[in-house]
Amino acid sequence: MENKKKSNVMTYLLIGGAYVSFCVGASFSTGNELMQYFASYGVFGILGAIIATALCLLLIIVLIRDAQKYNLPDMKTLFVHYGGKYLGAALYVYTVFYLFVLVVMLVAGAGAVFEEHFGISNMLGRGILTLAMFLTVILGLNKLLDILGKLSFVILIMMIVVALIGIFNPVDGIIEGSKLALETPSNIVARQGSNWFMSGLMYFSWAILCQTSFVASLGKSSLYKESDLRKGMYFGGFGFMLMATVPSIAIIANFSICKGSSIPTIAIAKSINPILAVLFSCVVVIAIYTTCSPICWSVANAFIKQEQRNFKWMVAGMLILAFIGSNLGSFTDILYLGTSVSAYVGFVFIATVIFTIVIRKPKGTLSECGTECVDKE
Questions:
Q1: Model pLDDT for residues 162-179, shown as the tens digit of each residue
Q2: Which H, E and C letters describe 340-359, residue by residue?
Q3: Sign of the dihedral defined by the CA atoms of residues 243, 249, 251, 253, in that order
Q4: Average pLDDT of 33-50?
Q5: Region 312-330: what's the mean pLDDT?
Q6: What count of Cα atoms within 13 Å lies in the side-chain half-sphere of residue 133?
Q7: Is residue 8 predicted with pLDDT exceeding 80?
Q8: Which is nearest to 52 in space by CA: 228, 213, 227, 241?
Q9: DSSP type of residue 40
Q10: Hey, which of 29-33, 294-298, 371-375 has the most confident mean pLDDT?
Q11: How far is the CA of 71 from the CAs of 221, 348, 350, in angstroms?
Q12: Greater confidence, 67 or 290?
């Protein structure tokens, strides 16, 4: 039996930091999703960001509690616990599919970075990233991913630094930028919801769907007590809220230069200093590279075990499909479609959680009651 880690502030910070790093990945760092869900609604969009991240924190704490209480060791078991044998399985299959769509989205994002900030054609940029990931998988360069993956904290720091400079030395200012955001038509700036409140709910919905894998990984851990996980998530929730609101305010304050860019955060960096923009662009591309490869492994592992001989070639085939899919639209279009569909699926998942907690109220763990906990209805 493993010993629980001691309860202290450092433990809470480690748990919270892991959550923030999980949430603020390659897609988030581009600023495009912040533009679509929050900044395009002006200052009211910031309220949407606060509501979305607060709701994420609330539901994550509930999910972690249930994951430990009912012994839900993985994402599939978690979905089946709430949605039942059939709906839960369908939610799991969709989430696995969405992870693949996320790879398509990020490959398209890499193409946008290469085109807008390195002067390389969009398709060539996508091809470069796909080739790099293909070689990583075939040659088994896992250690390289581990090393570069440690740059995640650099993304957090650079995003906050660029955002703060953009807020205190803006092109437009918050008031003028907010007015410009509201006046800009949707054919120029994509907006997810009919208003800022609905957009915030949609962000919460699709974000929580993606965060189930993080919940499962924490829920099955025997190193932390539930109270420590909860306190750590308070730190993480505040950090996530900070990362969603501060860059969104910066995008609003610099809306005139962000509205035509697929990568608003880099557009702000470029207005500050071209060298800073190049550094930030490199970090974003590396983040996309280190994010996509593990996701491909995870998706492939849902169909074929990693130990099997054809596993690498299946991952390689998925990367080729991801490259083809990334050419079906712009980064903004793919992000808009992928996350909006996932938001509605997320609403279904949230409904199953509420129904399970309020109506079904299962007792015991899955190991104790078999399928009764999930099929009682």
A1: 999 999 999 999 999 999
A2: HHHHHHHHHHHHHHHHHHHH
A3: negative
A4: 95
A5: 86
A6: 33
A7: no
A8: 241
A9: G
A10: 29-33
A11: 10, 22, 19
A12: 67
The DSSP result for 51-104, as a single string, is: HHHHHHHHHHHHHHHHHHHTT--SHHHHHHHHHHHHHHHHHHHHHHHHHHHHHH
Domain boundaries, the chain: 10-363
- Rounded-to-integer distance, Cα 32 and Cα 45, Å: 14
**How many residues are there in the chain?**
377
Q: How many CA atoms lie within 13 A of 252 on its CB side?
A: 23
**How large a percentage of the chain has pLDDT more than 70?**
88
pLDDT at 149: 60
Distance CA 229, CA 232 (A): 5
Which of 126-130, 212-216, 327-331 is predicted with the least confidence, judged by mean pLDDT? 212-216
Q: How far apart are CA 166 and CA 162, in angstroms?
A: 6
Q: Which residue has tokens 């869900």? A: 37
Cα atoms in the Cβ-side hemisphere of radius 13 Å centred on 96: 18
Alpha helix stretches (DSSP H) within the chain: 9-23, 26-29, 32-37, 43-69, 75-118, 122-139, 142-149, 152-168, 174-183, 196-210, 212-219, 226-253, 255-258, 264-272, 274-301, 311-326, 331-355, 366-369, 372-375
Tell me the C-alpha distance between 27 and 105, whole Å: 8
**Number of C-alpha atoms within 13 angstroms, CB side, residue 11?**
14
Distances (CA, A) of 226 to 54, 65, 373: 19, 7, 21
Greater confidence (144 vs 333) lies with: 333
Q: Are 60 and 215 in contact (CB under 8 A)?
A: yes
For domain 10-363, give the CATH superfamily.
Sodium/glucose cotransporter (1.20.1730.10)
Q: Do the beta carbons of residue 46 and residue 197 sit within 8 Å?
A: no
φ/ψ (deg, to 5) at 214: -65, -40
3-state secondary structure (DSSP) of residue 273 = coil
pLDDT at position 140 is 65
What pLDDT does residue 3 have? Answer: 54
